[in-house]
């Protein structure tokens, strides 16, 4: 995880694989959750892949991002509102 990560700042966790399995796209869920995140808060997205287009879209909206391998081998992507 990045140095700025604080587990207590994670306001929401989204599982992209679960959303995709239902036939939806995780970007919409991330954008809906992101509006409720306070400044300095974090959103955790977990997936079996690096969600590069989603990360790019959220950076354009002013979020700091970091992706890394979680303990279960999946990719954890943190989004923090600056």
Structure description:
There is one protein chain. By secondary structure, the chain is an alpha+beta fold. It is built from 3 helices and 4 strands; from the N terminus they run E-H-H-E-H-E-E. It has helices at residues 16-21, 26-34, 52-60, and strands at residues 10-15, 42-47, 63-69, 75-81. The protein has a 4-stranded mixed sheet with strand order 1-2-4-3. The longest helix has 9 residues, at 26-34. The protein starts with 9 loop residues before the first strand and ends with a strand. The mean pLDDT is 94.
Summed up, what is this model?
By secondary structure, the chain is of the alpha+beta class.
What is the arithmetic mean of pLDDT? 94
Number of strands: 4
Strand proportion: 25-35%
Weakly predicted, low-confidence segments: none
Largest sheet: 4 strands, mixed
Shape: globular
SSE string: EHHEHEE
> Distance N terminus to C terminus?
17 Å
Q: Strand arrangement, largest sheet? A: 1-2-4-3
Cα-atom Rg, whole angstroms? Answer: 12 Å
User: What structural category arises from helix and sheet content?
Assistant: alpha+beta
- Specify the helix fraction band: 25-40%
């Amino acid at each position: 995880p990045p140095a700025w990560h604080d587990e207590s700042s994670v306001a929401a966790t989204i599982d992209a694989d679960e959303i995709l399995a239902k036939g939806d796209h995780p970007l919409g869920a991330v954008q809906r959750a992101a509006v409720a995140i306070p400044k300095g808060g974090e959103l955790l997205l977990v997936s079996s892949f690096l969600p590069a287009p989603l990360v790019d879209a959220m950076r354009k909206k002013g979020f700091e991002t970091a992706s890394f391998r979680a303990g279960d081998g999946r990719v954890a992507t943190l989004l923090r509102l600056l």
